[in-house]
Structures are given as structure tokens and as C-alpha cells.
Protein: Sterol desaturase family protein
Amino acid sequence: MIPAVVYAIPAFVLLVAVEALSYRFLPDDDERGYEARDTVTSMSMGAGSQVIALPWKAVTIVAFAALYSLAPWQLSPASVWTWVLLFFAEDLAYYAFHRSHHRVRVLWASHVVHHSSVRFNLSTALRQSWTPMTTLPFWLPLALLGIPPWMILLQQSVSLIYQFFLHTERVDRLWRPIELVLNTPSHHRVHHGSNNTYLDRNYGGILIVWDRIFGTFQAEGERVVYGLTKNIDTYNPLRVAFHEYAATWRDVRSATRWRDRAGYVFGPPGWTPNASNS
Structure:
């Protein structure tokens, strides 16, 4: 089964080109816009992620199907309530995935790819991980709820397509009721900020309500500084994909105690033994 998001790729590429041209003809000094090497890196990361995702999708389907067969009941796709449950359950699963991938370093090593650009535009949405294996567990409960696997995969694609449009500086804040409920470009700019105020905020996929409920919401205020707290300053896709795994391994090798080794792997990004003892 080919994910629906694959069929959207030509539209993604076209919209990246349109947005890039908009900066050429309607420049804005307050927005960083595009840089050719950065855009090529983002699109290379996106292409690589899709190549890797195809065989991994077979593993995902098998896992979903196995748990679906074990579910105490199997929900009907003909029922509107199954789709309502799927929408909220999938979005909550995304929130859990996203938050954990910012707070556990070995998971962050996969997700950091998406935050490695110092620019924020539609091409940034395509800058995706080459190690998707850490994502699967967060969606497995949906199959155990009795939701058909094909529906889970479809809703995942819907969420990813929606999130593509969040990666832009060309859209200001939207109507207040929309900003209250849905994830928007303004909310997602905050998520990509390296400002102290913006770190580990706004994890939502389609909805922003989970962030409001669980205390991780932050409205856009001061100008967003994009990228990492320590930027990697490279356009090499291999380094972008694996730099944090390499850094984690270096820290683990330098540690002299097993508890410190575990902290470097399972603690939050930036964890150090001294910080844990302070």
C-alpha cells in the first residue's frame, strides 16, 4: 500500500517553487526565505526518507494487521464514529510521538533532522529523518482499538499533508478561533524556534489542543530564531541524518559509569552528569 502522502509529492515540489518565487518578487526583510544549498539538502533528506520508508511501510502494515487481528472488536469504516475516533486518536498519538522525540535523546537523534535548518519555509517540511523505526510504537494502540490498518495509514498521510502547509513564514496569524483549536503556521514557527522561550513547545499535529491540555503551548511572541541551540553548519545529507547519533555515541564512550551512559542515551537532549547532580 503506497501512502497517500506520496501522491502529494509533486504538489509539494510545485508549492516549494511557488513560495521560493514569492520571495524573489515580494521580498520581506523580516523573513529568511530560501537559500539554494539549504533547499537542496531539505529535498535530498525528503527523497531519502521516502526511499527508506517504502520497505519500512511493509513492517508497519504487518504490525498493524497483527494487532488489529488481536483487538477485542473491529470497528467499521462505514461508521462516522470510527473516523471521529481515528482523527482524535491519531492526532494524540502524533503528539505523544512528537513530544517523546524531543525529550529522549536517542529519539531526538532521529527527529533532530527536521529541526536542522536555520530557515523556515515549505522545503523545511520535506527535511525528514532517515531512521523512521522509532515512530511505530506510538500508533500501535490504534490497531488494538480495532481501527483498520488502512485507515490508520490514511490518517497519518492526512496529518503529514496538513503539516506541510505549517512550514511557512508567509502566513501570519489566522482567525483567533482557528488559532485556538488548530495547529497553524504561527504555532509551528514557535516549535521550530531555538529561543529559550520556544524550546519544547507546540508538539501538535493537526490540533493544538493537546498542547493546551498538557501545558506545552506557547504563543508566538518574540522573533523566532530557527535551527538548533547548537547548529551543525553543514549541507551534507549524511551528516544531517546521523550527526546526533554520532554525538550520542561519543558521549557514551566518554562516560565512565553505566548510569551516565544511560543518561546520555535516554535522558533529554543536552543531558550531562553534572546537570543531573545539580
About this structure: The longest helix spans residues 36-70.
